[in-house]
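FW: tagging you since you asked about this chain on Friday. Here's the raw sequence from the shared folder, copied in full. Didn't touch anything.
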Amino acid sequence: MAAPASNLRINADRLWDSLMEMAKIGPGVAGGNNRQTLTDEDGEGRALFQKWCEAAGCSMGLDTMGNMFARYEGTDPDALPVYVGSHLDTQPTGGKYDGILGVLGGLEILRSMNDLGVKTKHPIVVTNWTNEEGTRFAPAMLASGVFAGMHTQEWAYDREDAEGLKFGDELERIGWKGDEPVGERKMHAFFELHIEQGPILEAEGKDIGVVTHGQGLSWTQVTVTGKDAHTGSTPMPMRKNAGLGMARMLEKVEEIAWSHKPDAVGAAGHIDVYPNSRNVIPGKVVFTVDFRSPQLDVIEDMETRFKAEAQKIADDMGLGVAFEKVGGFDPVEFDEGCVTAVRNAAERLGYSHRNIVSGAGHDACWINRMAPTAMVMCPCVDGLSHNEAEEISKEWAAAGADVLMHAVLETAEVQG
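HL: got it, structure written out here
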């Protein structure tokens, strides 16, 4: 497979201008974006993306989950396409780059191919996956999950937002429900460019993250029961303090995660305390423990150890404790050939790089079940994402898109 010439580069100014133009749709209140899935703003962003794709010489496909597929023909129309993309929807207080860089970076590949007269054997398809964020309609990565057979379309259509509106109805309302059956497309490979959403690349001064794995996730909801009692008149030896029990359990979450350093992590992000009154000892606490690791056996070990330690704490304190697994998915190992194409591209172009594990879920994690897949990451300032202050530089965006282009062109078999 011939490697693209090392002087091939995307148009950095055009990519940046496109990012800024898309950011005008669904502006946030603090410089970012609020372009949640299946809103009118999402529809407007989709229309702009389609306009740009058609101007670049693409035909647009649309499936019954609203996934958009902009096809750029190769020299062999029977060759399986190489897919590239991410998502255009944002968090309610989202940034201008999370997801959007991957979609518009894919488009920029096609625009640059037009500029440079580059052809590939395999067609290239730029994809916008519907509802990656999962903010309005849970869960995240919903449409790519249906595409990969992780959810049924009927179940996805029935997901409701906070106002009781259904995904299927809203998809139809904004006019982006296609006729193509979801999940029938065959892929030669899939690549996704994304901002890191973490601080590692910036802290180490690396241009590119070569994503080798996606972390697996385990969510366990823990309910600790004690006894509501007056904080002033209940003697210390006679208290059954569910809040204190939780505090001791959270120390174990920290200890267990540290024991599997450097890649394992653990914390409790959701905590409810009852009755949550200043002068009442908590009689019940509900919290969710989030363990993540790129290794399944590590996740299973953390789950098992935590339950044993939490049960012992509860028994010693005279508390009740119950555990419920409320979410999770297995770790992802990306395709060795696609990962190598990304790494070779970074080296060919002279960009500093390191292997990295994605700490967040991405559409690529589901598509990896369907086709050889890999991800490219670029740094973001202070590792900040899902925040209107999310920021990257034009140079970081260009480096990521350059590496993406070279990996895609090599995999799609550049001609000549």
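FW: The radius of gyration is 23 Å.
HL: agreed, and The CA atoms of residues 8 and 54 lie 23 Å apart.
FW: great, closing this out.
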